[in-house]
Amino acid sequence: MADRRMLAALVSGAAIVGLSAGLFFWSQMRGDADVFAACAQGQVAGGMGAIGGDFTLVSDAGETLSSAEALARPSLVYFGYTFCPDVCPLDTVRNADAADLLAEDGHDVQPVFVTVDPARDTPEVMAEFTDAIGGDTLGLTGSAEQVKAAADAYRVYFRVPDSDEEYYLVDHTTFTYLVLPGHGTVTYFRRETPAEEMAERVECFLNAA
Fold first, then answer.
1. Among 56, 139, 189, 190, who pairs with 130 as Cys (CB 3.0-4.6 Å)?
2. Residue 30: its pLDDT value, please?
């Protein structure tokens, strides 16, 4: 009887140790999910870690940049196009406004505008657009292949019509992604999110990082 009790105690102790180790490694695997748990308000299939990745694009200054170079600071990343008549300008201005609000609280956040229409959005066109938007907005373009690779990494849908017309429209998704150096994409914002709410949520992530 005593031997069985001792064996049971040993087994129980081993189980507790195993459970503790399992919980530890599980928490490590969760990583940013724990760090940013209080800030997250949306989920995507596969988790936020499935959004984003390496890319190479050309800046509005004509410089070829890797994703690490382009997103060296906390960034609000949006995919659109400069010929967009309404949605893209409103969204990019909102992102710049949120960055300005964050700057007032001492946070350096960069709005990033990635075109899905590189045929028309040359670096020169992008520079005119980002200058008009303001807020230290970085414009990124590139070849059709480079743009598609970046869009695919961020799960961005877009469709450029096969048209000879100058003023064609491009269908595309309109999420803005918050990308933090060392963490990657940590959350996203829908276009109806106002600048004040965006700034508040971004600040939560910045303080937790």
1. 139
2. 43
